[in-house]
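Why do we care about 3D structure at all? Because function follows from shape, and shape follows, mostly, from sequence. That is the central idea of this module. The next example makes it concrete: a single protein chain, its amino acid sequence, and then its structure expressed as tokens.
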Amino acid sequence: MSDSVKETLWNHKSIERGTLITAVVLLVGSLFFKSTKLTLGVFAGGFFAFINFVILQRIVITLTSTTSEKKILVGLLSLLKFILLALALFVLIYSKKVDPIGLIIGLSSVVIVLALMKLVKFFGY
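And the structure:
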């Protein structure tokens, strides 16, 4: 395995770990507000963000390493993943079991990790 591939895989693992850690920190922070809906929203958002990132990573790896015939199937599976995620988020918001703001906060865990990683790289740590 080349160094660039090892570095890329290490970054994916770092993003996964960082997303989980950020989601837990956000979840603990939501407990401060003593709102079950908010905490459930943060939990659901963090869960969906993590699962979406892992599945998306697998899709990209498959798309870049398979033949064009399999790419159509992977593309359709990617579309199905998007539809299922949108449906799950719609059901959660429509059922009013979770706070939409908490859901957005949880979903942003991946974005927070990516921004922090970029800042760390920029400042050379």
